[in-house]
Amino acid sequence: MKNSQFEIKIDDLTGPEIAELLAEHLRCMAGVSPPESRHALNLEGLRKPDITFWSVWQGHELVGCGALKELDATHGEIKSMRTAAAHLRKGVATRIVEHIIAEARRRGYRRLSLETGAMPYFAPAHKLYHKLGFRPCRPFAGYREDPNSVFMTREI
User: Which residue pairs, CB below 8 angstroms and at least 24 apart, start in 45-51?
Assistant: First the structure.
């Protein structure tokens, strides 16, 4: 599947498709991460003015999503990365992360960071982020050391 087949658009988080994908994301995180280590945002959490949220579509089908949170004028955080189960390993996550990196660059950020789980379930995410230039880092933006979390960052 080629990246050109995806349409990425800013999403107002009101559609039923995105509500279901995010509910699936939260259910999945509840199944693999203890409550104190879950940092996934719900719909209301994603509607904050410091967060831009994108949905990824292939035709009329929602295939994924991701968000960028502004931490300060030079630092952003990737949030709510999710690929619909039927579209795993098709390049959706790579495409949205590349889009978020380009947007961070356009905004003039110098650094882009993220938090993800440390469990084996998250190994594909670790591999993707590493491939796209992210490296392990210390906790940032109020996060604390947590054996269930991996913190990564990259210079823009």
Answer: 46/13, 46/22, 46/79, 46/80, 47/13, 51/79
Crossing angle of helices 123-131/92-107, nearest 10°?
Answer: 50
Query: Do residues 71 and 141 make contact, with C-beta atoms less than 8 angstroms apart?
Result: yes
Rounded to an integer, what is the distance from CA 16 to the centroid of its chain?
19
Element of type H or E holding 103: helix 92-107
Instruction: State the pTM of this model.
Output: 0.93
DSSP state of 58: E
- Contact, 29 vs 50, CB < 8 A? no
Kindly report, residue by residue over 108-149, the tens digit of the pLDDT. 999 999 999 999 999 999 999 999 999 999 999 999 999 999
* Per-residue pLDDT reduced to its tens digit, 72-93: 999 999 999 999 999 999 999 9
